[in-house]
Amino acid sequence: MKIAPKQRQELDFLRDTLENLEKFAGRDTRQNFRDLRERLDNWAARVAVIGQVKAGKSTFLNAFLHQHDFLPSDVNPWTSVVTNIRINVPTDPISGARFEFFDDSDWEEIVNGGSKIRKLTEQLLPGFDTEVLRQQSAEMRDRAERRLGKHFKTLLGTHHDYDFLSPDLLKRYVCAGPGSHDGLARESLGRYAALTKVANVYMRLPEFQVPTILTDTPGVNDPFLVRDEFTCRSLDHSDAFIVVLSAHQPLTDVDVALIRILAKQDSKEVMIFVNRIDELDNYSVELPRVMSDVENRLKAAIPDIDFTLLAGSGYMADLAMRTDPESEAEIRELDSPELHRFLEATYRQVPEDPRDRLILASGLHEVKSALSTLIDEGLGSRHLDQFRSDIRAELNAVQFVTKRERDSLQQQVESVNSEVAAMVVEEMESEIADIQSVQANLESNLENANQQIEKVLNKYWSKLEAKLVFHIETFVDEQKPVFEERVFRSNVTGSNGNTLDISTLPLQGRMEKEVVQSYAKSRASIDVPLSNCIEACRQEIKEHFDDALENISLDDLPFDGFNSTLTLAKQTLRVDLVSGRGWAFWRQKSIDVDKSIAALRSIAALELRPPIEKILSAYNEAQVERASAGLARIQTMLRMVEVGLTERTHRLKQTKAEFEQIAKDPQMQQRMVYRIQSQMEVLERRLLNLSAMDSAIARSDMLDAKVA
After folding, report:
1. Which of 218, 266, 385, 502 is the most buried (most CB within 10 A)?
2. pLDDT at 582 over 50
3. How confident is the model at residue 35 (pLDDT cuts 50, 70, 90)?
4. How far apart are CA 272 and CA 309, in angstroms?
5. Residue 383 and residue 386: Cα distance in Å, rounded?
6. Torsion of CA 578, 581, 586, 587, to 10 degrees
7. Cα separation of 238 and 559, whole Å?
8. Is 357 helix (H, G, I), strand (E, B) or coil?
9. Would you call 578 helix, strand, or coil by DSSP?
10. pLDDT band at residue 484, thresholds of 50, 70 and 90?
11. Rounded to an integer, what distance in angstroms lies between the CA atom of residue 274 and that of residue 294?
């Protein structure tokens, strides 16, 4: 099936429009349309496939891409790598891959876990640095150095490029081999996995009608926290999410927390796929109950969520696409009366071919259809609306410049046959002075807006940082009753446990709310100077030139809202309870609540500082991108006045001497009239073409609005 055919039509329309605008626009304005076309060529629908470890994400993606065993589907969680499958992106190579390696600072964090944090956790929270994490870090370092030898240090911060990619080659970079330490230097499987930061894979698949980036992420319950961070960063840059759940254990607390974060981002789409249904004992009976349970629990936990819920089996689809001899036996095993009952109950049909039966039961077609709708009517429309607004702004600017030039030529024609040539030259010089004055005022308006926005960015960034730190401190203070309850239970029951797990979910909820509210205020404060500036510029131009600029506006700017997925980075803090010291050695040691809270405060400050910094960085990126997009619209006005000034100056230099001579030479007057009239005809044709394209974009915009 075709995925996102409607957006394909819109992309083709916009690309053709930009190519035509390059032809019809003047020499000085063509580059602006080339820049827009380059932006359009770099656009892609970004879809992240996420979920817990062993939910079957990679098997699902292999089936989705019709690439059996391409993405490794059975790897240790701490060795998995964020893998971007870049499909039909025009600026990418046709095939191959690029593997980017961690740089020195990334590797230092992986190996040492942050030296200050590691040292303090060992002093105050000996239970925090688990043996699993120690073994992972040690093994990761050891395997990397054994495999790469002298090349290890030279690879940091670099990348490897390939023109062709095979599954075995991919596995060298994204999964670790299970072999012993002996012979690691000769082992190809997972040779570079420990150092790989992100994998970019290039594909051309006709099924996808628009450029699409599918991201295969490590599991969100991955105990290796550095990988978890990169997973969260990939989510921030995605437009839609396919959350893969296991039919055996759908919707754990981690799943609910993840979906809650995604659902709060209004501009992003969420699809939930219950995978591995073939592993249920009686899926024709059990699956409806599972789906009902997932839907009810999600609506109870997240009442405002809007999601698409589907079910199936990536394994079934993958198996149906295989042609090896082993697959025949597996197909016969799965092609059971249970499968027939499921198809009849769910789809009211049972295809004749066993492979078709598996494909239908896999749910793959429903997922592709749902994704197509999400792109066509959701994320694709939003992004292309921004392109349309930017194109119309540039088009309006070119129309302005062209009209000014046409009117100036008309004045020259009217003056050629008169005896006021000197006066015409003087008027032209006066008009240029007016344009220069307008240009200076527009630049002043833009500079003022820049300064105000810079203050807004710094103000809200600092306020959010202070608020997040305040929430952490308040959260720690609120744990005193928890510690006191633990002391009471210890005294009553006589238990002497020395650790306490503190869930950070309440804190994360406050942080998420703070980020959303802060961004809403910041966005409003950014939009005020942008709106004031664009209105002041419009008025300035209108007063001097009496030209309308209604198509240059702040409509469809990016990041109307923002909520970072990085708030998921930490789930619990494990606290080692500090014992009180006294002279009565025969008494049972008691817990010192104040010292235990002080220990928690120190750890929380350091453990939660890295995620706070990453949240602030993502927050700032969203602020800057919105402000930059708005300022770019205003700079369009500056460019059109600058182009107008350049054209008029050029025209003045070209015709000034001629106007000084026309009174003395009637033949020269006639030649000049013909030349100017010819130039006017060119400009008139240009205006007609520009007007037609403007109307076409407007009609396209109206049609999309009706569909929405």
Report:
1. 218
2. no
3. confident
4. 5
5. 5
6. -60
7. 13
8. helix
9. coil
10. confident
11. 9
CA 536-541-547 angle, to 5 degrees, is: 125
Per-residue burial over 438-449, b if 16 or more Cβ lie within 10 Å, else e, is bbebbeebbeeb
CA neighbor of 175 nearest in space, from 155, 160, 196: 196
Q: Are strands 269-275 and 82-87 parallel, antiparallel or unpaired?
A: unpaired
Tokens 């789906």 belong to 291
SS (H, E, C) 597-662: HHHHHHHHHHHCHHHHHHHHHHHHHHHHHHHHHHHHHHHHHHHHHHHHHHHHHHHHHHHHHHHHHH
- Calculate ∠ Cα 63-194-315, nearest 5°: 15
pLDDT for 225 = 40
Cα–Cα distances (Å) from 157 to 108, 143, 193, 198, in that order, read 12, 19, 14, 12
Q: What is the pLDDT of residue 534?
A: 87
For the chain, how far is it from start to end, CA to CA, in angstroms? 23
Cβ contact 552:636 at 8 Å = yes
Percent of the chain with pLDDT over 90: 22
576 strand-pairing partners: 499
Domain chopping of the chain, boundaries: 418-547+556-578+586-664
Q: Which two tokens stand for residue 434?
A: 């007016």
Is residue 236 within 8 Å of 564, Cβ to Cβ? yes
Confidence label for 529 from pLDDT (cuts 50, 70 and 90): very high
45/30 Cα distance (integer angstroms): 27
Strands 212-216 and 45-51: parallel
Residue 408's Cβ-count burial label (10 Å; 0-12, 13-18, 19+) is buried
CA distance 228 to 567: 11
Question: How does the average pLDDT of the chain come out, rounded?
Answer: 78
DSSP-derived secondary structure for 223-239: S-HHHHHHHHHHHHT-S
Residue type, 321: M
For residue 303, CA distances in Å to 239, 243, 295, 605 come to: 22, 18, 11, 33
Residue 218 banded pLDDT, cuts 50, 70, 90: confident
- 352: tokens are 């004749």
Closest C-alpha among 98, 191, 113, 197 to residue 151: 191
Task: Give the DSSP per-residue string, 117-143.
Answer: HHHHHHHH-TTTS-HHHHHHHHHHHHH
On whether the pTM is more than 0.90, the answer is no
Distance CA 271, CA 268 (A): 10
Which helix (DSSP H) or strand (DSSP E) does residue 5 occupy? helix 5-24
| Tokens encoding 600 | 């928690």
Residue 96, beta-bridge partner list: 202
Q: Residue 227: phi, psi to the nearest 5?
A: -65, -40
Q: How far is CA 597 from CA 88, 373, 492, 586, 604, in A?
A: 54, 51, 22, 26, 10
Residues recorded for the chain? 708
Cβ-contact 215, 124 below 8 angstroms: no
Please give the single-letter amino acid code of residue 100.
E
Nearest to 548, CA basis, from 396, 381, 402: 396
- Cβ contacts of residue 204 below 8 Å, gap of 6+? 87, 88, 94, 95
CA dist., res. 74 & res. 96, Å (int): 22
Q: What is the pLDDT of residues 309-358, one digit of tens each?
A: 999 999 999 999 888 888 888 999 999 999 999 999 889 999 999 999 99
C-alpha 463: how far from its chain's center?
25
Report which of 534, 530, 573 is spatially closest to residue 551, judged by C-alpha positions. 534
Distance between CA atoms of residues 160 and 153, nearest Å: 15
User: For the chain, how are helix, strand and coil distributed in percent, rounded to 5?
Assistant: 65, 10, 25
Degrees, nearest 5: CA angle 137-138-140: 65
pLDDT in tens, 530-564: 999 988 888 887 776 665 566 677 888 888 888 77
